[in-house]
Design brief:
mainly alpha, about 375 residues, single chain, about 70% helix
């Protein structure tokens, strides 16, 4: 299914090619690229992973995807409120939440089927589907209440909750934007103080603790609705300089985790930063993403001509169809893992798996756009 669209006024000086589009294509492009990176990162021991963000800093594609989703929700549901009122907003958020919930359950079953066809064994263990194959009924019941998730599907339950609660969140952001953002930040801090999390099964672990990662979604929505307040910070040369310095620092540290000559010159205290807590959105990861966002705001304007290149058009198509493409990416990563494990894990095969997977995602997104009702 295709993501809902939103409209905005055209900016002076936009490329003629972009005038027909009713949404900021940079957001779609960011989500599309994030989907490609998530797919590549989900394939273990894959050379394609060196093209993704996680090897060059503290954060990875997950932060981009979460923040961009908050921006998209604010734009889409905000337009629905202006044009059709709160009843429409509530109806659309509930419908979108249901769509994601159904997609999650179907994806869970699909992962179990792939694990079964692969003969179980190591792939079943690594994908967290062993328990699903051994105890189908009990595990599906846990999946139905979002407590069980196969590996790489953790994002979907978060978005089920996000869309379910976005109508009251939007109401608060429109009336008390700073208080709402402050409450979100306070919840994030309390996660670290008291170790709060949402119940999970069977081991109680969330790859993305919703109580922590909600901050990025709320931040994305807040930045969209409070653009006039945010812009002076984004255009500040001081902020830009600090962002560049932090990105260079994180680049050196991240390279030290994988390249021994770099590791040799890094103090042991800094080298231990590889233990950053992704589940609870470590503050250093959050700062790294914010630094990237500052650079993007400076050097990628809305009317950037690169958006018209074939590669970026493919990313935009994927970003505009994020739900089916994310689900497809999970299955393609699972299949790619099977290929590398059972057939060959050579360099040529890793490159082939990466390219074929991204090509399949782009082709599916284009096909879905062509057949989607207007």
């Amino acid at each position: 299914m295709r993501d809902r669209k939103t409209t905005s006024k055209l900016m002076v000086g936009e490329l003629p090619e972009l005038r027909c589009h009713a949404r900021d294509l940079r957001i779609d492009a960011c989500r599309g690229i994030a989907l490609w990176w998530i797919f590549l990162d989900h394939i273990p021991n894959n050379i394609g992973g060196w093209l993704t963000l996680r090897n060059y800093g503290f954060s990875d594609a997950a932060e981009i995807f979460m923040f961009a989703s908050g921006v998209t929700c604010a734009l889409s549901y905000g337009k629905a409120r202006r044009c059709e009122g709160w009843t429409t907003v509530i109806r659309r958020t509930l419908r979108r939440s249901w769509d994601i919930y159904v997609a999650f359950l179907l994806l869970t079953l699909a992962c179990a089927i792939l694990a079964y066809l692969a003969g179980g064994g190591r792939l079943a263990d690594e994908s967290n589907t062993r328990i699903l194959l051994d105890h189908l009924g009990a595990t599906l019941a846990r999946a139905a209440i979002l407590q069980y998730r196969p590996v790489n599907t953790d994002v979907l339950p978060i978005f089920v909750l996000l869309h379910l609660l976005f109508a009251p969140l939007l109401w608060l952001l429109l009336r008390l934007p700073n208080v709402t953002l402050g409450a979100s930040l306070a919840l994030y801090v309390l996660v670290y103080v008291f170790g709060w999390t949402v119940p999970a099964w069977p081991n109680g672990h969330w790859a993305f603790n919703p109580l922590a990662w909600q901050l990025l979604v709320v931040l994305g929505a807040w930045c969209t609705l409070e653009e006039k307040r945010v812009r002076p910070w984004l255009t500040s040369r001081t902020v830009l300089g600090l962002a560049v310095l932090y990105l260079l620092f994180s680049l050196v540290i991240a390279l030290s985790w994988r390249i021994k000559p770099v590791e040799a010159v890094i103090p042991e205290t800094l080298a231990k930063l590889h233990q950053l807590d992704k589940s609870n959105l470590d503050p250093l990861r959050l700062l790294h993403f914010l630094a990237i966002a500052v650079l993007a705001a400076w050097f990628v304007p809305r009317n950037w001509r690169g958006l018209m290149t074939p590669v970026m058009r493919g990313a935009i198509c994927c970003g505009q169809n994020s739900l089916p493409i994310y689900c497809l990416g999970v299955l393609l990563a699972f299949a790619g893992h099977m290929v590398l494990f059972d057939i060959s894990d050579g360099l040529a095969m890793q490159i082939a798996v990466s390219l074929v997977g991204i090509a399949a995602m782009i082709t599916t997104a284009i096909s879905n756009r062509q057949h989607a009702p207007e």
